[in-house]
Amino acid sequence: MIGRAAAVLKTMASGDAVAAPIMIVAAHPDDETIGMGAQLWRLHNALLLQVTDGAPRDGRDAAAHGYAGVAEYAFARGVELRAALEAGRAGGVRTEVVGIPDQEACFELISLTQRISQLLRETAPAAIFTQAYEGGHPDHDAAAFAVAAAVWLIAAEGRSPPAILEMTGYHADGPRFATGTFLAADRPITTIELDAADRRRKQSMIDCFTSQRDLLARFDLETERFREAPNYDFLQPPQPGELYYETLRWSITGEIWRRQARGALGELGLHAPPWA
After folding, report:
1. Average pLDDT in the 25-45 region?
2. Contact present, 131 and 167 (Cβ < 8 Å)
3. Whose C-alpha in 25, 81, 220, 260 is 20 to 30 A from the C-alpha of 203?
4. Alpha-carbon distances of 97 from 34, 203, 216, rounded to whole Å
5. Chain-centre distance of CA 247, in angstroms?
6. Domain count for the chain
């Protein structure tokens, strides 16, 4: 799959349009913009699958952003996504929202994997972009797991699986909140320097996510980085020490996340994934 991955990334890096079918799996509305917002308008046949509705069910985020309730917050995040795609002229990107509650995707790994594998059969993309397994957010890690598991299932059926390509998000770097980089892995990284037009386009997309203004201000507009996904062992922590989302003291921990991953692998019949 390295050849297919390299071909897609070479086309993107050259600034040319990507005619081949592409799939994107992002955990939250705005993750696709953070990771590859400047590239979306170049995709002429893409499906963006949003895993969550972006609204945690405890209501704290909704209240903090001035919304009357969780439903209103989730609706607003969907409106922001549609506005961002329009602002970015991403007319070749159609969307589907799974709608899992924010911070709860690890409890839906089986159904999420099954939906992605079904879409892979229907659309046969050349590549599928998703997020890295690096402990930044449990939903990011769930997206990484579900994409990998879906591709394993497709390969087990004798079909030609798509290349899995990763976009950057965020993770812990010691005490730092690291953005725009990957945790170290034995994979080459394609760095695309954004020109002035791409930076303006991406900024116009970011500006649509008014509820996420403070978070998105922490990401730069100079580059977008991609790589083929490493062969993750999802039963091991993505990095030593405390994961970034564990520092937030949510109800989810890395141990709970990995317990869900172990159970999902068994239910999906993936008793011997490639890293076992």
Report:
1. 97
2. yes
3. 25
4. 18, 23, 21
5. 21
6. 1
Q: Which amino acid is at 84?
A: A
**Which one-letter DSSP state was computed for residue 95?**
E
| Residue 55 · residue 62 · CB < 8 Å | yes
Q: What is the pLDDT of residue 273?
A: 59
Q: How far apart are CA 276 and CA 274, in angstroms?
A: 6
Domain with 111, as residue range(s), is 2-262
* pTM of the entire predicted model: 0.96
User: Rounded mean pLDDT of 24-46?
Assistant: 97
Rg (CA), the chain: 17
Q: Does residue 149 form part of some domain? A: yes
Tokens representing residue 129 in the block:
């972009």
| Structure tokens, 248 | 């937030």
**Residue 274 in domain:** no
Residues 6+ apart with CB under 8 A from 1: 161, 162, 163, 164, 228
89 in any annotated domain: yes
274 pLDDT band (50/70/90 cuts)?
low
Q: Is residue 254 part of a domain?
A: yes
Place of tokens 């607003």: 76
Residues 6+ apart with CB under 8 A from 8: 18, 20, 22, 126, 127, 163, 165
d(CA 128, CA 119): 11
Tallying the residues shown for the chain, one arrives at 276
Sheet holding 22-26, edge to edge: 93-102, 46-56, 22-26, 127-131, 163-167, 223-228, 189-193
Q: Give the pair of three-digit tokens for residue 203.
A: 């900024």
Q: How far apart are CA 126 and CA 19, in angstroms?
A: 10
CATH number at residue 162: 3.40.50.10320
CB atoms within 10 A of CB 2: 10
Greatest Cα pair distance in the chain: 50
